[in-house]
């Protein structure tokens, strides 16, 4: 997940944001905790209710206090106001999953399409689908996305490639501009979910890719696709690694089935590092991905391992970041 530095200018800005983009009456409320109180309403709840049956996986947060959650069930996208916890569905899905998401500075969500083998660009304000791209055919799982080097980079957990979708200065790329960059070097695909979370390196010259089934983090040269294992001082130190988020030289790695987030400090190039801490919370129910706003991390609870129904409740949890 991308580096996010967000600040509010006080109650006036907060009030404007709530009025402008808060969900309608009856939308999902905050269900626990708050960072402050204004006018009798809790601000910045530490648990945000998502629609029943939502099946969340990805999360994106931009410069404003709004989180976006994709649905594995049908690909719809839900926007939650971090100040109030309320939200609404901003776009109905295509019937295939929405997995990883990133938001750019122009308020556009880049959405990984999972088994659909596609990617979409959606307006974070209106929910309008601005562009769609076919990335793969057949067995595929387009899992996560990073914005770097003037492009959106998508991982495929079943195929050893990164999909590069250019982001022009004006407008959006055409289908013929999409490129598949083969992954090679140290990263070898096997059974299960392979490449998953993706992020730029601290120096902004490479990509970090988490391979879930080998518990290994790699630095990838975006020009060649050659991957080099990041030396973390031990063998397979990141079991169940899923989504990742880089802030400065600190990498947060969500370890879904372990219900925790590994805190990794990296060198400037992202070739070496160490696990220095582990963050957890009793409310975690298989979190998958992570985004940040201010001093908080936000993680959706995917609840993998239970049989989802239309009535299954889902939530996202906020914790203090290291």
Topology of this structure?
Elements: H1 11-21, E1 30-32, E2 36-38, E3 41-43, E4 47-50, E5 56-61, E6 66-71, E7 77-81, E8 87-91, E9 101-103, E10 108-112, E11 118-123, E12 129-134, E13 142-148, E14 151-156, E15 161-166, E16 179-182, E17 184-185, E18 195-200, E19 207-211, E20 216-220, E21 226-229, E22 241-247, E23 250-255, E24 260-266, E25 273-280, E26 291-293, E27 296-300, E28 314-320
What's the quick description here?
The protein has one helix at residues 11-21; strands at residues 30-32, 36-38, 41-43, 47-50, 56-61, 66-71, 77-81, 87-91, 101-103, 108-112, 118-123, 129-134, 142-148, 151-156, 161-166, 179-182, 184-185, 195-200, 207-211, 216-220, 226-229, 241-247, 250-255, 260-266, 273-280, 291-293, 296-300, 314-320.
Following the backbone from N to C, one meets helices and strands in this order, namely HEEEEEEEEEEEEEEEEEEEEEEEEEEEE
| CATH T-level fold name | Methylamine Dehydrogenase, Chain H
Strand content: 35-45%
Mean pLDDT over all positions? 90
- Which class in CATH terms? Mainly Beta
Largest sheet: 5 strands, antiparallel
Number of helices: 1
Instruction: Identify the strand order in the major beta sheet.
Output: 1-4-28-27-26
């Amino acid at each position: 997940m991308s580096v996010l530095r967000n600040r509010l200018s006080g109650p006036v800005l907060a009030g404007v944001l709530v009025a402008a983009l808060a969900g309608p009456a009856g939308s999902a409320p905050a269900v626990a905790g708050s960072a402050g109180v204004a006018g009798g309403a809790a601000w910045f709840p530490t648990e945000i209710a998502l629609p029943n049956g939502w099946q969340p996986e990805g999360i994106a947060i931009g410069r404003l206090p709004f989180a976006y959650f994709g649905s594995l069930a049908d690909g719809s996208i839900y926007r939650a106001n971090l100040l109030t916890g309320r939200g609404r569905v901003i776009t109905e899905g295509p019937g295939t999953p929405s997995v990883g998401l990133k938001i750019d500075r122009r308020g556009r969500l880049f959405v990984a399409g999972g088994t659909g083998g596609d990617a979409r660009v959606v307006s974070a304000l209106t929910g309008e689908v601005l562009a769609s791209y076919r990335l793969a055919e057949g067995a595929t799982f387009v899992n996560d996305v990073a914005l770097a080097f003037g492009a959106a980079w998508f991982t495929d957990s079943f195929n050893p490639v990164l999909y590069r979708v250019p982001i022009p200065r004006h407008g959006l790329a055409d289908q013929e501009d999409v490129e598949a960059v083969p992954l090679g070097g140290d990263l070898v695909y096997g059974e299960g979910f392979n490449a998953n979370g993706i992020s730029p390196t601290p120096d902004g010259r490479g990509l970090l890719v988490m391979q879930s089934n080998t518990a290994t983090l790699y630095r990838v040269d975006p020009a060649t696709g050659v991957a080099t294992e990041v030396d973390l001082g031990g063998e397979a130190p990141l079991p169940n690694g899923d989504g990742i988020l880089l802030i400065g030289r600190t990498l947060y790695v969500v370890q879904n089935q372990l219900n925790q987030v590994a805190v990794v400090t990296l060198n400037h190039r992202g070739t070496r590092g160490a696990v220095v801490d582990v963050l957890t919370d009793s409310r975690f129910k298989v979190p998958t991905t992570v985004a940040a706003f201010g001093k908080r991390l936000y993680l959706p609870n995917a609840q993998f391992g239970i049989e989802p129904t239309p009535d299954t409740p889902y939530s996202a949890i906020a914790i203090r970041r290291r």
